[in-house]
Protein: DUF5081 family protein
Amino acid sequence: MTYQSTDAFNVPELYLLAAAFGGNVLFGLPEKEIYQLKGEEVFEEAHKRLIEKQILSPDGKVTKAGAIIIQAIEYYHQSKKYVRINNLMFAFSSHHEDELILLVELEEKSLYKLFVVSKAIVLKMLGERFPIVIREPQEEEKTYLKEELTNQERHEIEQYDPGDSLLNLEFFHLDEKPQEATNPSFYQQWLAFTNEENLFMVDTVARKYYQASQYWFLKILFDEMEFPYKEAN
Structure:
């Protein structure tokens, strides 16, 4: 299983599929209770759509394709760690260490696509989608990892709009307590962007601004995504 895709699913459909293994919480999605309060019709409609997509058979049984999707959702549900990169949420399977479960948010908090992807393909995809990942470091970046900006430098960067080049990185480690944004072992958020060939990273929780080296940025990315490092020749 290297790269499997499904059609797009809305939140009630995903929770209906998660019910197959008793899953009532799917990390990063709106709470199930929100939809339960809207009445049974919401899940009846979701059931009909899953039949139309041949995820369920006309008599409501799980099809072969449905079983594969349910397993991917179960692996997503079981993950103890999640990494969000812009609208991409990655979960980690203890069953297949070379694969990631990817939930792509197509419409905010409403429509998603689900993939099971090898880490090699994910790394290639990130490089293609986010140029900052394959950015060539400047020569002087070999001399530092990160340097905190002065107040003046920070003020200038705060006025800068990186536009679509902004990379939002969020890390969630569910085994770490307390599960609070102020606990960096549980949660971190970094914004990464370039300005005039320089790489900048912002620790949004600590509210610290850095000029960063490409090596430091990639170390954070590789460590959190659990990508293997290539050994130097």
Remarks:
- The chain has a mean pLDDT of 95.
- The radius of gyration is 20 Å.
- The longest strand covers residues 99-107.
